[in-house]
Structures are given as structure tokens and as C-alpha cells.
Specification:
By secondary structure, the protein is an alpha/beta fold. It has 8 helices and 17 strands. The chain folds into 2 domains: 140 residues, Response regulator (Rossmann fold, 3-Layer(aba) Sandwich), CATH 3.40.50; 107 residues, OB fold (Dihydrolipoamide Acetyltransferase, E2P) (Beta Barrel). The two termini are 39 Å apart.
Length: 256
């Protein structure tokens, strides 16, 4: 029986991971599911021991690597994350295991097998400095984002400053930039490509069709128990909702 700790600020993701662990041949006892840095620090300070931790990088009150700045964690960790090329590069360079969301049963089985081989079968696995790893991830992520985009307007080429972008949206298999003065320009990028060129401190990928800039948000209201509605200036062409699986990260982003 392996004692497991899940650190995940999105309840649906935590429940899914617990369900997948229950499908594995090995017995996993999830003793706690925590949502924040504060809860993690309090848990570790109790001295309770676990065999394995599944930890999301982005928590409700900050980056999970902040935990390791406050205390030393020797328990093996499998990090979980949405696709982040910079964090993944750091993990690979430091032989740290990770799972990409949405997590599949096959990927989970592979990660658990690696954990057992490295920490159970091997007598003296190399120790990982998670605090140092966090610094490496931060360095990898500290890269230059675009300051402007070149766009076509009639027979002209124009530049649009990133700070003037209210939101980016996809429509009819094309991608458009909506600027704060109301003008709309089409761009030769996919939504995934343009998302990587925008600073995530200022822009948030709400769903498959929209990326919104923080200063363009006029208000946010509850649409249902599991969905938020965003109102922007200028207004989006269609209603803009935050899905349940992005609720935690969206609120964290707003609260930075």
C-alpha cells in the first residue's frame, strides 16, 4: 500500500487522478488532497509521511515551487501540468517525472512504474533538489514575449502593440486580434501559436476560441455554479465563459 498526497487546486482534476489511481494494480491510499501552498506547508510541518506526491505546478495561491523555498521535501514527486514547454524542458534536463494534463491511465501507469523502479527497486536513488529545480523552471520561463504584431490592413502593413490587444479570438477557421480601439485584424497564427507569444501574466487562454487581456476585462459574474461569465470592453463577438476545469487557474490569474 502506497500512501499518496495529491496537490491540485482544481477539484475535477484531483477527483479524476484519484479515480485513475484506483484502477492501477498497486494499492494507492490517497490520504489528502490539498489545493494551496499554505495547505502544503502546514501538512509537511505535521511530519506526516507519504510515499508519493502528485503536484500541480500552478496552485490557487502561487507556484508550487514556492513550497520548497520554505521547507525541504524528500518525498518523490510526479509533477502534473498543462503543456508548458519551459517547465517540461527543465524536468527532462533534471530527470524529473511529470504528467501532462489531461492525464491518461496509460501515462499514469508509466509514471508509477518509473517511480517504483527509481525509489523502490533502486537502493540509493539520487536526491532531487526541488528548490533548485524551481529556479531552473523560472529561468526557462523567463523569456521574451512579443511586443507587437505585424498585421495587414487593406493594402497596408501595420503594427499592433501587444498592450493594445483586448483579446484574441478564433472564428471560421481564422484567428483575429481585437484591439482596444475597436479595430479587428486577422493574423497568420493558430490560437496555440499566438498563446505562446503572449505573456501569461497579462493574457489568459479562457477556452479554445478566446485569449483575453487582463485590462480588457470589465467584470466577471457567476453564470452557474460551475461557470463564470466574462464581460469585456470592447465586447467579444460571442458570450465568453470560463469552463469549470479552468476556474481555479483563472481566479489565480485575476488575483496576481
Amino acid at each position: 500500500m502506497y500512501k499518496v498526497l495529491i496537490v491540485e487546486d482544481e477539484a475535477p482534476s484531483a477527483r479524476k487522478l484519484k479515480m485513475l489511481l484506483g484502477k492501477l494494480e498497486d494499492d494507492f491510499d490517497v490520504i489528502a488532497s490539498l489545493e494551496s501552498i499554505e495547505e502544503c506547508v502546514e501538512f509537511f510541518e505535521t511530519g506526516e509521511k507519504v510515499d508519493l506526491i502528485f503536484m500541480d505546478i500552478h496552485l490557487s495561491d502561487g507556484n508550487s515551487f514556492e513550497i520548497f523555498e520554505q521547507l525541504e521535501v524528500e518525498t518523490p514527486i510526479i509533477f502534473t501540468t498543462a503543456f508548458d514547454q519551459y517547465a517540461i524542458k527543465a524536468f527532462k534536463q533534471n530527470s524529473v517525472d511529470y504528467l501532462l494534463k489531461p492525464i491518461s491511465l496509460a501515462d499514469l501507469e508509466t509514471s508509477v512504474d518509473k517511480f517504483k523502479k527509481r525509489f523502490i527497486t533502486d537502493n540509493s536513488p539520487s536526491k532531487i533538489d526541488y528548490d533548485l529545480l524551481g529556479q531552473v523552471v523560472a529561468q526557462q520561463m523567463n523569456h521574451d514575449y512579443k511586443e507587437r504584431f505585424m498585421v495587414s490592413f487593406r493594402d497596408e502593413l501595420r503594427t499592433v502593440k501587444v498592450e493594445d490587444i483586448a483579446f484574441v479570438f478564433a472564428e471560421s477557421k481564422a484567428v483575429f486580434i481585437q484591439v482596444t480601439d475597436g479595430k479587428v485584424y486577422d493574423v497568420n497564427y493558430t490560437m496555440d501559436q499566438i498563446e505562446k507569444k503572449l505573456d501569461p501574466k497579462n493574457f489568459f487562454r479562457v477556452n479554445r476560441k478566446y485569449i483575453v487581456q487582463i485590462n480588457a476585462i470589465d467584470s466577471v459574474s457567476w453564470y452557474s455554479k460551475t461557470k463564470l461569465k466574462i464581460f469585456t470592453k470592447p465586447e467579444t463577438p460571442s458570450e465568453l465563459f470560463v469552463p469549470a476545469d479552468k476556474m481555479g487557474k483563472f481566479k489565480e490569474w485575476l488575483n496576481r
